[in-house]
């Protein structure tokens, strides 16, 4: 149930698209994506340096470490989401940056797979908080007619962090790449000056309504349905990034690509495409005045590109393969739009909880997608198993978008009871 508890207008400060809040949220997401994607880029190089040389083991140990990182994000999503509604958006924004920065600095010193795994878990917990807190803060401080543009800026700047991760990983090596990521995060903490807490959150603190109760999402059938649908919208992106792109060397070999394919370059081109995709999806939602129609168009586009990737690249050149990764990246460039929709679907007392858990549960879906992919790989093969998972995740996501209430231009000054 939605209840507006504000008898008088919410006190707000003038907030522009290039305000300190938007800038810090965008740069925070930039470092978040740098650190999140870095492992996919340096997976083979780092594991070889730690003594893993067999091809099968490189894949298995790589998936193990991805699962540890994503498992951390599942735990962190709940932790930071609850804290965001109980203690404030800013405490989560900067607390999460501090934790993942320290974890990534430590990651540069690892000597064993187990050390690597536990630090990816801790980094995952830290990485879970930044995006949800940033999107919530931007959504609550910008005028409702500008929200889509604000979150578009956060996403467009943020996803380009993956390209920096590729350049640094290639130029400086995997250990130094982790040091750089940790250093960038710690430097970002200096920008706290000029960033203020959401007025809607400050007002909710004065009310008697309970804030940050994660279990409240499960006590009302309609609320739970909205929440689950929000989660499902983000799964196709992490199917693409977590399986098709992370395992690009394996898919390149399986498709008979005529030259070597590296995960680093596949990630680079995919995220380069994401920059354009996030810009396009955010703008399209504003032009169409509909979040849902923009998401539907991008999901259809994504389905077409997954088909191209899996069935039209046999015997292709590496250039054609990387071009497909780039366009596939454009097609899944609805990430910040998805998080914006999640934030707009819920009241102030649960908004950070949802906006933080939804993207992290979507990211964490890799933990389920990977064993499903491995189980299907035996009977269906590499391409067949990916096709099945892709088709199912996209179909479910399209249904979820189509049955969610439209949230464009929605007044966010209300609480859930």
Description:
The longest helix is centred in the C-terminal third of the chain and has 38 residues, at 366-403. This protein starts with a strand and ends with a strand. The chain has helices spanning 20-49, 55-86, 89-107, 113-141, 147-159, 161-172, 174-188, 199-206, 221-245, 248-254, 263-288, 291-311, 318-331, 335-344, 348-364, 366-403; strands spanning 2-3, 415-416. It is mostly helical. It has a single domain (18-189, 216-416), classed as MFS general substrate transporter like domains (Growth Hormone, Chain: A, Up-down Bundle). Strands 1-2 form a two-stranded antiparallel ribbon.
Task: Offer a quick outline of the entry.
The chain contains 16 helices and two strands.
Broad CATH class: Mainly Alpha
Low-confidence stretches: 3-12
User: Structural class from helices and strands?
Assistant: mainly alpha
Average per-residue pLDDT, rounded, comes to 85
Rg value: 20 Å
- What is the CATH topology descriptor? Growth Hormone, Chain: A
Which range does the strand content fall in?
A: under 5%
Distance between the termini: 5 Å
CATH architecture: Up-down Bundle
User: Helical segment tally?
Assistant: 16
CA-based shape: globular
CATH superfamily: MFS general substrate transporter like domains
Q: Would you report the number of β strands?
A: 2
Count of spatially separate domains? 1
Major sheet size, sense and barrel closure: 2 strands, antiparallel
Helix content: over 70%
Order of helices and strands: EHHHHHHHHHHHHHHHHE
């Amino acid at each position: 149930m939605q209840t507006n508890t504000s008898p008088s207008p919410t006190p707000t400060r003038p907030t522009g698209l290039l305000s300190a809040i938007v800038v810090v949220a965008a740069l925070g997401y930039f470092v978040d994506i740098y650190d999140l994607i870095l492992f996919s880029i340096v997976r083979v190089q780092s594991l070889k340096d730690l003594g893993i040389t067999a091809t099968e083991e490189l894949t298995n140990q790589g998936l193990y470490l991805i699962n540890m990182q994503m498992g951390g994000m599942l735990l962190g999503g709940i932790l930071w989401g609850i804290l965001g509604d109980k203690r404030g958006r800013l405490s989560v924004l900067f607390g999460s940056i501090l934790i993942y920065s320290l974890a990534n600095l430590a990651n540069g010193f690892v000597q064993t797979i187990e050390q690597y795994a536990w630090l990816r878990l801790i980094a995952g917990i830290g990485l879970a908080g930044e995006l949800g807190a940033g999107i919530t803060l931007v959504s609550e401080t910008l005028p409702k007619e500008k929200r889509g543009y604000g979150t578009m800026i956060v996403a467009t700047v943020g996803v380009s962090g993956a390209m920096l991760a590729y350049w640094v990983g290639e130029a400086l090596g995997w250990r130094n790449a982790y040091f750089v990521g940790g250093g960038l995060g710690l430097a970002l903490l200096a920008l706290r000056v000029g960033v203020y807490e959401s007025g809607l959150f400050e007002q909710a603190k004065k009310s008697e309504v309970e804030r940050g109760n994660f279990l409240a999402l499960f006590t009302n059938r309609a609320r739970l349905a909205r929440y689950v649908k929000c989660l499902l919208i983000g799964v196709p992106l992490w199917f693409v990034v977590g399986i098709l792109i992370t395992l690009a060397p394996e898919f390149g070999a399986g498709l008979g690509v005529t030259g070597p394919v590296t995960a680093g370059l596949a990630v680079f081109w995919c995220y380069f495409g994401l920059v354009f995709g996030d810009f396009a999806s955010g703008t399209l939602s504003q032009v169409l005045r509909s979040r849902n129609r923009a998401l539907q168009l991008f999901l259809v586009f994504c389905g077409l590109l997954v088909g191209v990737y899996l069935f039209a690249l046999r015997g292709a050149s590496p250039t054609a393969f990387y071009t497909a990764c780039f366009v596939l990246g454009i097609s899944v460039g609805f990430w910040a739009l998805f998080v914006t929709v999640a934030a707009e679907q819920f009241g102030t007392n649960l908004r950070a909880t949802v906006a933080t858990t939804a993207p992290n549960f979507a990211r964490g879906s890799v933990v389920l997608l990977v064993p499903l992919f491995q189980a299907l790989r035996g009977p269906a093969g590499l391409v067949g198993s990916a096709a099945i998972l892709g088709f199912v995740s996209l179909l479910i996501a399209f249904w979820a978008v189509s049955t969610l209430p439209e949230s464009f231009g929605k007044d966010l000054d209300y609480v859930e009871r």
